Structure formats: structure tokens, C-alpha cells
Amino acid sequence: MSQPVGKLLLFGATGDLAQRMLLPSLYGLHADGLLPEGLTITGTARSDHDDAAYRDFAARALDEFLPADRKDDSAVGKFLERLNYQPLDASKTEGFAALADKLGDISHGLAIFLSTAPWLFGPTIMGLEAAGLAGHNVRIGLEKPLGKDLQSSREINDIVASAFPEERTFRIDHYLGKETVQNILALRFGNSLFEPVWNAQGIDHVQITISETVGLEGRTSYYEESGALRDMVQNHMLQLVALIAMEPPARFDGTAIRDEKVKVLRSLRKIAVNEAANLTVTGQYGAGASKGEIVDGYTDELGKASNTETFVAIKAHVDNWRWQGVPFYLRTGKRLAERRSEIVVQFKPVPHSIFSERGGQLHANKLVIRLQPEEYIRLLVMAKQPGLDRDGIRLREVPLNLSLDTEFAGTRRRIAYERLLLDLIEGDPTLFVRRDEVEAQWEWIDQIRAGWEANDVKPKPYASGNWGPSAGIALTERDGVTWNE
Questions:
Q1: Domains, the chain, ordered by start
Q2: How far apart are CA 448 and CA 270, in angstroms?
Q3: What percent of the chain has pLDDT over 70?
Q4: What torsion do the CA atoms of 106, 10, 411, 413 make, to the nearest 10 degrees?
Q5: Distance CA 136, CA 119 (A)
Q6: Hey, is 337 helix, strand or coil?
Q7: Residue 117's pLDDT band (boundaries 50, 70, 90)?
Q8: Cβ atoms within 10 Å of 477's Cβ, excluding its own
């Protein structure tokens, strides 16, 4: 099913995600004329709104979270006319009949965006099916968390699969909607200069960092249950590994791209129980200074003692011909020195320097792909400093910059959810995660957690505002590698 649907149903329509991301994203698509003509958007949640009250709620959310240059009273008014609302307690099947009545005729197709607690997946899917909202012309988008380990993930996926086959199930990882993430594919497979060296012969190592300066920010119960490994590594970071390490797909479509990604995820070397303490580092932030302010530690914010990790660093390997022997260093954490998401590809040095006898010092080339807050691709290359060279040749590392903000200044940068919601509405699965990908990711993550439990690994403390525990630095330094900071 690849045609646009006529109706969109949003679960969790009064939540934080809806206010900050979903409603502004849908408005952006509407304002640019990208939503199908006549598409209606029905929100549902436990809050007791009618249509008018929900439109007022949505108007306030747009006023708060839309950039000033995107606010247009006429466009907002027309967008609000698309919105309807039906209160629903998703834990009770009987309420879904009224939801189906509210939606009305769905013969032109229905897309569902489901963001719910894991324990509600069963009742919600049963309710949708009982109300006739799971037919052949209905597709469903699933927002994480989809379980906390392989077993619970399989249970949730089995529940969803009982009503929605794989081709109508769209698992969302919002990182895949980011423009710079998609540019990884353009960089790798649209330029001939990288492919000959994009392997163990040309690349020394790869670093992936996703760092945050924030703490819990109201996500106390979720984060205490998940921790950094489940929250960030299992989905976002492993998807980035797959995009960097995948083989060239035969074509740009959902099946070919996801086939190559899952090969990488299945090739990840399992971290043995006796290696977990050496190949991984966990940490938990304490009190410190962040962005010029004194902040509390994790347990202070939580209000009790905890062994949940807020930082994790991992040395990983992809065991196949292309990547044999190339370490992938992964690092993520909260309350770190700065907010940053980036991939660093460190190339190997030239096999012989012709400049050493004349004093020229070479640095191996480095490719930096910055995902946020700035978006750029930077290739560091060696160049000769101007001069007569009477005292020797002076070489300097200089950047070749592709700033997406500058090069595409005339093109509006979209929220990741804009692309993902539009793809859900239109039925394009390319940027969504397939079940076999999710399960391969969980298998790898579960092995790490088993190693932590077997070795009684507890998170090491680090002060808010720095780059995590010193062991995270030692993880790379003992290999002669320094984190890109």
C-alpha cells in the first residue's frame, strides 16, 4: 500500500511530543501544500476535549513551538479546520467504537500514529481491531519505546503483527528523519571518491557521539527503567552504525536499504560476558555546572539511589570483510559538556611521507559528519602553508566544509517528524525500522546488559558539565585514539 491515506489518527494527541513535534510538523506540511487534499487529523487521548477545545489546545501549541517566520494566521486557521478530537481510555476496548464513529468513512485509507506505554499496546491493538480500524487500508506508525529487551520487544511486535502485517507497520526512529542522517547515503553512494577507501584498508576507526547537556527533564520514570544503553544506543546509535557500515544497496527503496542495514546489525560482534567491563564504560552524572548553572546529580533529581546509567561508551566491531579490525567507538550521555551528535571517520595515514625529511608533519584525513546542533560535513585534509620553505616545509590541516545551513540557505530545514509523518501518510517505508532490524539491535544490547549483570558493573560517577567518567576517555586512549572534542 503506497498511496496517500485520507485520514490520520494521532494517539497521545495532548502529550509533549504532540505539542513540540507532531502538531508543528503537520502544520508545516499543511502550510507547504504537502498534505493530501481533504486529509483530516483526529487526535485522541484521555483528556476530555471536544473538537473546539482541541483546536484551541493545538493553536496554543503552535503559537509556542512554531518559529516566528512560520506563523501565518490564515494557514494556521485552515490547518486547525483539519483537526478533530475524540477522548479515549485506550485500556478499555469499549471506547474504540466511539473513536471509529468519530473517524467515519476510512475507505480512502487511515494512517495511525501510536505513541503509548508498552503495557497499552495489547489493549490498543485489540481495540483498533474490534472497531474495524485495522483493515487492509490502515497502516500504523509505532513510536518507541518498543520494549526493554528482546523478549518484550518480540511480545509487542507479535501483538502488533496480529492485526498489522509488516508491510503496514512503520517503526519510527526520528533520527532517520534528520536531513544530515539521510545525507550519509548521499555522501557514500553519490560520490565515487569515498567508496575505494570506505573499508578496513582505508579507515582506522569510527567514532559516534550523541551528547546531551540536559538531565531527566520530566522523563524520570521512563529513564530510570531504560538508561542510556536502551534509550540511545539500541536505536539511534546502532542505526547510525548501520548507515555508515552498510554495503551499497541495489536501489533506493525500503526493502533494499533495510536489507543492507540488517546485515550490519547481525554482523556486530557480540560483547562476551568476560569482556563487558573492558569494552564498555557506564557512568552516572553527579552535581556540577551545566551551561553556566549549578545542577543536581541524577539521584538528586530522581529522589532515590539508583544504578541506572546516564552515560555509556562502547568499543564495537562489525565482523565482515569490509570492516574487519576497525573499531567503532560509541559514546552517549546526559549532562555532558555540550550538546552534539556527530560521526567521525578517521582515515589511515598515507603509507609513506615524502615530507618528513623537510620537517613536514602529516595528519591522517578525518571526515566529520555533524548532525546537530549545526549540520555540516567537514573533511580535514593536509595543505602546504604559503612561504619559500627555506627552513623546511610547513604543512597544516585545513577543513573542506559543506555547511548545509549555508549551502542550502534558501531551503527551509524541516523537523525530522515532518518527513516521517509524510512518509507514513504516503506509505513509504524507507526511513522506518523493520522488525528484523529491531530484534538484531536488541540481541546485541541484551548481551551487553548480561555482561554488566554478571560482572556487577555499576556506573562510575562524573560531574555534570564534563565528558563523562575518565574510564570513557581511557577506553579509546589505550588504543592510541582520542575522542573528537
A1: 7-172 (3.40.50.720), 176-477 (3.30.360.10)
A2: 8
A3: 95
A4: -160
A5: 25
A6: coil
A7: confident
A8: 12
